[in-house]
Design a protein that fits this description.
By secondary structure, the chain is of the alpha/beta class. It is about 50% helix and about 15% strand.
Length: about 350
């Protein structure tokens, strides 16, 4: 009944098993990318998904450009047989995804924790980054103090009240104490957040939610809510986890169709397709990257996009190939006029 999915708990030595979701038609791009970027092995794909094994770290996993979301694979099995079987038996088959091999779940959770801890460590501010911030705050503090002193010194000259000098010093010191306290508070808050992210979750204290997709004959027979409920109850009974739909520690992704039954854990909360450097949504980032990659851009070459709209293709090209020159609309006209004038002369 089960199709072997590899051992997810063998990370980092022999590699972990992952899968990515991808837009229709982008699977070949993603297969080439995981091979090139992650030195992935055991690559296979179905419509909308690419499965692979890799030893790559979190930073490398984040660099995937043609993937929508990245998941740590827990199980990949043959599809459920729905026809001429009672609902109770099918629910039992669903629960077997958890109950048949709890070890694979515990191994996958262990790998997920390691990835989470590494990601949290990467997000920490280094001392080099922290010092300039403090220095800037100090400079601002001095500027504020100087302004206060100048303003109040003018009042002293006008009113002839020498006691204001003392008041200035007191106010400056009060302001300085306030800024220092605020800095300490912010540092403590940041430390607390980081500690929360890096402290390993106890297996028994985990909270979770189940996200389901059902298609094909399974989708016709059951709703995603029904499947989610069955899987959720099995997880609570097997591992003692608690359900939390709003802010869980862990999300379990389940996709049942006529080709396979797949269970995985999202590695990152934010999809890989959501780029921080794209501020306004236009052409899908994964498609823009694929289109740019088809151009086989090399260092020093010009990338022209006369109908660029929001410039998503150019953004992807500039990010992926920083040594190329990306031109749009007005810049292209200037570029053409310059080269035309050069050829005429």
């Amino acid at each position: 009944m089960s199709a072997p999915a590899g051992d997810p708990g063998s990370w980092p030595g022999a590699g972990s098993r992952y899968f990515c979701t991808a837009g229709r038609g982008l699977e070949p791009f993603l297969m080439r990318e995981v091979r090139a970027r992650l030195a992935a092995t055991q690559i296979e794909y179905t419509s909308g998904k690419v499965f692979f094994t890799t030893c790559s770290d979190v930073n490398m996993l984040k660099k995937l450009k043609s993937a929508e979301r990245l998941f740590l694979l827990i199980k990949k099995e043959f599809p459920l047989t729905v026809s001429s079987i009672s609902k109770g038996k099918i629910f039992n088959e669903m629960q077997r995804l958890i109950n048949d091999d709890p070890g694979s779940w515990l191994n996958a959770i262990s790998v997920w924790k390691k990835l989470l801890e590494l990601d949290a460590k990467n997000e920490k501010l280094s001392p080099k980054d922290a010092n300039p911030l403090k220095r800037k705050v100090g400079e601002n503090e001095i500027i504020i103090a100087k302004k206060l002193k100048i303003e109040q010194l003018q009042e002293i000259e006008e009113n002839g009240e020498c006691q204001l000098e003392k008041q200035i010093e007191e106010e400056t010191l009060e302001r300085r104490d306030f800024i220092t306290k605020r800095e300490k508070f912010q540092e403590e808050e940041f430390q607390n957040d980081t500690e929360k992210a890096t402290v390993p979750h106890n297996q028994n204290n985990l909270t979770f939610r189940v996200s389901c997709r059902c298609s094909g004959t399974v989708g016709k027979a059951f709703t995603a809510q029904e499947v989610g409920k069955v899987i959720g109850i099995a997880l609570m009974k097997q591992f003692g986890w608690k359900a939390d739909l709003r802010n869980p520690d862990l999300e379990i992704f389940v996709h049942l169709n006529d080709i396979y039954s797949v269970v995985g854990i999202p590695v990152f909360r934010v999809p890989l397709a959501s780029r921080a450097y794209i501020k306004t949504a236009g052409l899908r980032s994964t498609i823009a990257w694929a289109m740019a990659s088809l151009a086989e851009i090399k260092a020093g070459e010009f990338v022209l996009d006369p109908m660029c709209g929001l410039g998503t293709i150019l953004l992807e090209a500039a990010k992926e190939w920083p040594n190329c020159h990306c031109l749009q609309k007005v810049l292209i006209l200037l570029f053409l006029i310059f080269h035309l004038g050069k050829s005429l002369s």
